[in-house]
Every structure is written in C-alpha cells, then in structure tokens.
C-alpha cells in the first residue's frame, strides 16, 4: 500500500489523520484509545491558564442538523476550552507522549492576550515533550466574550503579535488555528505568516444557531429557556472549509505556508479533497464524535486504496495537486459548451429534472404523455441543475460539444480556442485579445 | 393429542398466544422514526404516477412530504379530503397493484416507497387525537337516502353531510361498515378498527345510521324516493355464485364470505370452528383470505384450488405469496366435480382443466382432496336489484359519477358496473356520486 506517513512542519505521524482539539482529545483515556484505534496524531483539547479552570454549562451543549435516516450533517456546540486543571492535562500529555513517541501530539493553547501569560505556559508545555502548539484563535463562543479565541482571530494585528510572542518564547513548531468568522480568510493567514507561524490550521467552528424551539421560542440548545450562539461543524461546513483552505493555498503571500485542513472531514475522500487543495494533513472532530474512533480505519484503508489505484505513492504526491486548477471566475473558458443528456435507459421517470428546469430554470426539458423526458438543446444553458436534482446517479450527464459543432441555443459554432470574460465583447473592462 | 390434529370442524385448535400471534397486524404501524426514514425515500415526483394510480387521487407526494416535515395532521387532511376511509385503505389496499406499483422507485430498485404504511401513519396519528377534521356547510334542507353502509355508502354519506345535506344511511346488517366490518381479513384491520373508523366518520354530524333495515324487505326504492331528494345505492354484492357441483349441500360446505364474517364477528377466536383439512375453491382475494385465515385458525392442511393458471388468478402475486408463506397449498387448473361424504363432507373430487381455444376444457383426469370443510369463494354477485333500474351485466348500470337510469338514483361500489371491486374504488365512486348529487340538488348539475 502507498506510504501514508506524513511530515507536517517537522512533526511526523504514521498517517495524515489527526483528531482536532475538542472533546475526543480532552483527556489521557480518550487519546490513548484514539492512538490504539490508529489515529496518526491529536491536537489536545485547548488548555487555558493555570488556576481555577473554566466551567461549562450544565445543560445541553450541542444542537444538530440531520439528513435522511437521522444522519448527522451539522453539529453546533457551546463548549468552552478544557474544564480540567492545567496540571492534570500536562501530566497526562507527558505520559501519553512518552508511550506513543511515533504519534503526533500537539497542544492547543488559549490564554489572555498578554505576553506574560504566553511566557508562563509555553515552558510548561515544552516540558511535556509535546511536538508542537496550536494557537486557538478560533473558538467563537464563550471564550471570545472574554477577549480570547475568535476575538483574537478576527483581528490580524493581534494574530501577528501573539504568534510572534510564541515564536520568540519556544522552540516548538507553532500552528495558528483560524476562525472562519471573518470576511476574507487570507488576511488572518497572512498575519500568522508575518508573525512567524509554521503553519495555519482551519477551520474552527462557524457562528451558528442550529434551530429554534417553537414552543419556548428559544434557540437550541436551550439552557433554562435561553440559548447562545454556538460553533457549527460537521459535514455541512466542509464546502466552506475547502474554499478557505484553497484561498490560502492560492494566495501568493501564503503559498508556501503549510495548512492543516479541518472542517467536516468524515471519510477518506473528504481528506483527499482537503489535501488536494493544499492541506498537508487533516484534523477530524465531528466524524469521530458521531461514529467513534474506529472510523480512522476506513480513512486509512480508503485513502491507501485510492492512492494505490491512482499510483500516488506518498502524501506529498497529492498535497496541493488541485491548487493550480483553482481559478477566478473571469478566467473560466466561455467557449467550453456542454448540454445535458438524459439516459432513457436509466431514467425512472420521476420528472424532477422537468420540474426544476421548467419552473425555475430555462424550460429546456420536455415531457411527453408517456413521461419521457428529453433535453431541448435550443434552450439548455448547461446549468447542471437537472443533474443535481436527479435521484439516479449518472442518469443525466453533461456532454461537451466538440469544436466545430453548433450550439443550437446560440446558433454559434463552438470554437477550439478558449476565451474568457476578460476578453469578452460584453465586458466593458475587457482587454484586447492577442 | 395436538388440537390441530382433531378431526372434523372444531373450535379451539390453538393456544391463546398462537391466536394472538397469528392474527396480529399484517403490516404493523411505523414508529415515528421509521415513518421519517420511509418518507424520506419519496422523490416528490413531478405529476406523480402514484397519484394517477390511486383510485381516489390522493396527493401522495404532498402527504409524504408533510410527514417528512413532522406535519402528520396536515398529511392526514391531504389524505382524508380525497378519501375519507384513508385509514382503512392504508390497511387493505392492494398497493402492490396500485400506487406502489406506479412508484418510480419500484421501477428503479424494485422497492417502492411504502405509501400504504405511510398513509396509515398519518391517519392513525390524526385519529389518535380524537379530532374529526371536517365541518359541515350550512344546512341545505335537502335529504338523501344512502343504502348500504359499506365504503361506497360511507364515502357518499360523509361527502353529502359535509355539503350540508341530511343523510339517512340504511344497512341490512346489525352493524355498519360493510365488508370493512364483515369481510376484510382480520390481520389487515385489527383492534376493531372498522367500527372505530365508522364512529369517527359519523362525527361529521348530519348522518343518521339505521342498521337492520334492508331495501327490498323493509324499504322500497319508491318509498325512499318519496321521502328523500335523492337516493344512493351502495349495497355491494350480497349474493354468492353457486358451485354447481354435486353434493354442494353436504354439511361442512359453506360460502367463504360467511366463514369470514363469523370469524370477523367473533369476540374470541378460540370459539370459531375450523376444519382439520380445508379446501377453498376459488382464486380471488376472498379465496386467499379464507384459506389463510383457516390456516391461522389452526387447520392442518389448507388447499386453495383454482380452475385456471396462476396468471389468471384474481389475487395479486403478493396475496398468493402471503398464502404460500402461511402454508396454504395452491392448486391450479382444477375444477370441482363432486363433494364426497355421507352427510358431512369428507373430500372433494376435482377434474384437471386445460385452457383451449374455446376457453377452459375438462381433461377427464380426476383426483380427490380430502376435506372436512369446503369453502366456496367463486365470486359474489348482486342480490336483488330494485325494479326499474337498468343493469349492465350483473351489476347496476351507471354513467359518469354513478348516475343510474333513474334521474334521482345514483349507485357506486361493488354493486355498480365498472371499476375493480376494491374498498378504495368504492370510496372513490361514493365520493364522486355525492359531488354529482350535490351539484344536482343545488341546481348546478
Ligand atoms: C373476503 C373479502 C376480502 C376483501 N379484501 C379486500 C382487500 O383486502 N382490499 C380491498 O381493497 N378490497 C377487498 N375486498 C373488496 C371490498 O371489500 C369491496 O370492494 C368493498 O367493500 C365494496 O364496498 P361497497 O360499499 O360497495 O360494498 P360492501 O362493503 O359490500 O357494503 C355493502 C353494504 O350494504 C349492505 N346491504 C346490502 N344489501 C342491502 C340492502 N338490500 N339493504 C340495505 N343494506 C344492504 C350490506 O350489509 C353492506 O353493509 C374484499 C372483499 C371480500 C368479500
Ligand atoms: C464540542 C466541541 C468542542 C470544541 N472545542 C474546541 C477547542 O477546545 N479548541 C479548538 O481549537 N477547537 C475546538 N473545537 C473545534 C474543532 O476542533 C474543529 O475545528 C471543528 O469542530 C471542525 O471540525 P469537524 O467538522 O471535523 O468537527 C470544538 C468542536 C466541538 C464540536
Ligand atoms: S442543464 Fe440546466 S438548462 Fe440544461 S436541461 Fe438541465 S436544468 Fe435545464
């Protein structure tokens, strides 16, 4: 099988699957069992300052969104950083690292925005033998009200400042964990880079209210009649996370900054997608919280099988491979023309494509008395909506028109040379085509 | 000795647990989660084929989506506004030849959305609230006589009452419900559902149910027409076709519908006698129900004998498989010649048949099946037609929404020509006739 071992900013792990900083990594018992199950590494649940630990609510912490058969699609939480004493966590980290030297063990940290606070905690972490630190600038609830977490992550100057303090006060690699609750994720990533970060990890959770109790008229999860916004994660956030990872990977200023991809990773395929967009490894939280530690076995074997099939012999062979294909809209080829094609053999005659195209798109599908559905090439703009609503995979496909063929919608012959918006005659700001 | 081996026609062949187990729900109710999962499989098809396949045109994708979004009561309203006996139909419809056969997922993967069970989930949820969801329009002052309180009569009466007419509903039997109460297999409608649904339906108000009152002996059509503005006939098929085989009069030989009615009316199944060896003659739904229930009552051997081949059988493949799975032996291509026995039946002589160019021919080859009980299920027919009405074949001729040859008399359900003899068809015909009567009475027809 392909070699799945990963070297992320000098931190080695037998596979690229790490558990993200969260309940699965909150204590020695969990982490030992996670390592036994096969996880390549963990980021320990975020530690705070010495002294009395934070307290969590005693009512429900989670809200959820479900799909078919109650499959969990999105999870929301209002949990804080670890509520166990600092000394206990440090002692356990040391014991686990000693017993699992081949696994990655990174410690997540969140202390107040004062250099002294960071100077106090960093040596304590170093002393455990941990492989690195992750700065939690992402937690969007509770801790942010106290000036930490995403309150720092939303101000690039603070990110740069704190990262610099950390780099000056420890030899350990420093990963900066970013919040998605900003408008342009490139700015905080650039700030981390300027501060000397070895890598960024993203995303942390997204501000959210998952649902409202319509009897109490209160957001859920509801604590004694009230609810606070939480952080959203799980499969539902993956598209947002993928885009943010790609934005950073494509940005020339951060192009060489390693990325740890997080957000909705549930299967080996999700992981491969993150890595193709530039992530050197992935971190997982919700999938483990939903299915238990064992899922890593699916991830390891699935990724290995795919890499073998495709002839990718190492993780390095896949990381960033899709980045050059991430384009701006204006550079997409407008001469690439496709038409929807419905396979009558596979069609089960549900008519969903018809309803979608007829009611909401381009009236490009016809329906006969006997429920035969056909694409009207004169009208089809190739939007792909019919493909997406069709319940039968592969029944509707998009067929490329070869150069020289006529697009019946526009009456124009398909050209072989690409042309994009930058040179299009309708673009008032066009540049002359060479 | 094992009570199933006792010769003759005997009651109490099984233990109380076995009776309870054998006659439990054929398609048990979903729990809430199962209903969600099942509802989620619906594709919400455009102009859905299942709607067309339902004789009452229920908007199936809409009610399933309502279930999927947790609005079961709204789902029930969608169903009941088209089919007031949606609860019974959910239990008894041969969905495998109706809506579920048309489901695109049947075409796609041979596993349709379970429309019947979803329908039951919605209607049961509503009925558990004790609420009747329909109210009556302002009184019209018109009165209509409905003869027969089976599915056709009930659907007609309910729709008329809703439109503000006063309805008198006559039935010859001691209880209303028609075959819902006396005919449908008991494992399809457990726990007295037929009467519960009847009571719930009558809550609309404006319907006076008079049981034990028969057209022909207690009432005449002319008399009804004198007292009411219109008459709807929904008498079903009270008569039974004769076997025309020698020895039909021997003890132990009876009509399957009578056997079933006795079983349906029994408070305790242990009191219902059944043969050790039972032969059921016929190939329709009634034959299957009689055979299966005889087996479930503890008969040791049950054979169902049909004169033609499998494909010609009235019972659907699902029903045939059900019978086979309960241990009923189905014999094709044989017709009865003679019931043997000295006073009481001991067996039936059958003759092999073959289908020739001029229909079925007897081959002369005979065989005997031993039996102490013989149930005849070779079809029901109309029993006594009111004078003056035109017939089509053996049924009352109707035109469009149940119009008979008399301009103030409508008919629907099994007694009227056209349509399959099914509960759901009876409901559709009763409902449509009511709309037509309403239009006529209000001067819009
Ligand atoms: C054994 C059996 C099993 C069946 N199983 C199914 C099944 O699983 N699914 C399905 O869809 N269909 C089934 N059917 C068919 C279904 O029951 C009928 O199609 C349906 O009941 C017809 O409804 P109806 O209202 O026309 O007649 P009925 O249900 O027969 O009701 C007629 C009513 O009229 C009354 N009546 C008759 N004569 C008079 C009179 N002279 N005066 C006053 N009242 C009178 C009767 O007492 C009865 O109450 C089955 C039928 C039988 C016999
Ligand atoms: C209950 C819960 C607690 C979390 N606590 C932390 C935390 O203490 N520190 C942190 O950096 N991220 C925390 N996270 C965020 C996760 O590490 C991760 O970034 C996020 O859940 C997205 O990944 P996922 O989609 O795989 O769950 C928490 C998430 C959950 C669900
Ligand atoms: S691709 Fe879009 S426009 Fe073309 S047929 Fe499908 S839905 Fe209609």
Keywords for this entry:
heterodimer, A: 434 residues, alpha/beta, TIM Barrel, Alpha-Beta Plaits, 4-stranded antiparallel β-sheet, 12 helices, 22 strands, B: alpha/beta, Fumarate Reductase Iron-sulfur Protein, Chain B, domain 2, FAD/NAD(P)-binding domain, 3 domains, 5-stranded parallel β-sheet, 34% helix, binds flavin-adenine dinucleotide, binds flavin mononucleotide, binds iron/sulfur cluster, Aldolase_TIM (chain A), metal ion binding (chain A), iron-sulfur cluster binding (chain A)
Please describe what this structure looks like.
The complex is a heterodimer of chains A (434) and B (445). With 434 residues, chain A is of the alpha/beta class. Chain A is built from twelve helices and 22 strands. Chain A has an eight-stranded parallel beta barrel with strand order 3-4-7-8-9-10-15-16, surrounded by seven helices. In chain A, a hairpin with a 5-residue loop joins strand 18 and strand 19. The mean pLDDT of chain A is 95. Chain B folds into three domains: 98 residues, Alpha-helical ferredoxin (Fumarate Reductase Iron-sulfur Protein, Chain B, domain 2); 156 residues, FAD/NAD(P)-binding domain (3-Layer(bba) Sandwich), CATH 3.50.50.60; 137 residues, FAD/NAD(P)-binding domain (3-Layer(bba) Sandwich), CATH 3.50.50.60. Chain B has 17 helices and 19 strands. Classes of the chains: A alpha/beta (434), B alpha/beta (445). Chains A and B meet through helix 11 of A and helix 2 and helix 8 of B. The site of flavin-adenine dinucleotide has 39 residues of chain B, from helix 10, helix 14, helix 15 and helix 17. Iron/sulfur cluster binds next to helix 11 and helix 12 of chain A.
Sum this structure up briefly:
The complex is a heterodimer of chains A (434) and B (445). Chain A is of the alpha/beta class and 434 residues long.
**What portion of the residues of chain B fall into strands of 2 or more residues?**
15-25%
CATH architecture descriptor text of the largest domain in chain A: Alpha-Beta Barrel
- Number of E strands of chain A: 22
- Stretches of chain A where pLDDT is under 50 for at least 5 consecutive residues are none
Which stretches of chain B are poorly predicted, pLDDT < 50 over at least 5 residues?
none
Radius of gyration of chain A: 25 Å
Which CATH class of the largest domain in chain A?
Alpha Beta
The largest sheet of chain B, given as strand count, sense and whether it forms a barrel, is: 5 strands, parallel
Please identify which CATH superfamily of the largest domain in chain A we are dealing with: Aldolase class I
CATH topology title of the largest domain in chain A: TIM Barrel
Kindly name the structural category of chain A: alpha/beta
CATH topology-level fold name of the largest domain in chain B: FAD/NAD(P)-binding domain
Helix-residue proportion of chain A: 25-40%
Domain Dihydroprymidine dehydrogenase (chain B): 20-129
Domain FAD/NAD(P)-binding (chain B): 143-430
Pfam families (chain B): Fer4_20 (PF14691), Pyr_redox_2 (PF07992)
InterPro entries (chain B): DPD_II, FAD/NAD-bd_sf, FAD/NAD-binding_dom, Helical_ferredxn
